[in-house]
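A reminder from the course coordinator: this example appears on the midterm review sheet, so study it carefully.

Given structure:
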């Protein structure tokens, strides 16, 4: 789904668990816990249409280490998308 018109909206939530060395680090999501493996956590977000072909999006990623020393990384992103 794309946000194309005024008052269009979209929300999402996801849970991720990536065990140590389950995937090559080059192919992991760099937004979730700044990349890498040995992570579990969630992502939530929403997008809202501000006008025709204009949308704002807010996303929050929270990730913790599964094993090893405790490490928790939270990331907040805000996007403003305009198409012409």
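Designed residues:
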């Amino acid at each position: 789904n794309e946000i194309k018109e005024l008052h269009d909206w979209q929300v999402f939530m996801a849970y991720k668990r990536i065990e140590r060395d389950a995937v090559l680090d080059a192919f992991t999501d760099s937004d979730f816990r700044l990349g890498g493996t040995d992570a579990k956590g969630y992502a939530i977000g929403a997008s809202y249409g501000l006008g025709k072909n204009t949308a704002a999006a807010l996303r929050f990623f929270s990730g913790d280490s599964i094993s090893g020393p405790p490490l928790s990384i939270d990331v907040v992103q805000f996007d403003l998308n305009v198409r012409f």
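Residues 5 and 52 are 5 Å apart (CA to CA). The beta strands are 9-18, 39-51, 54-65, 72-82.
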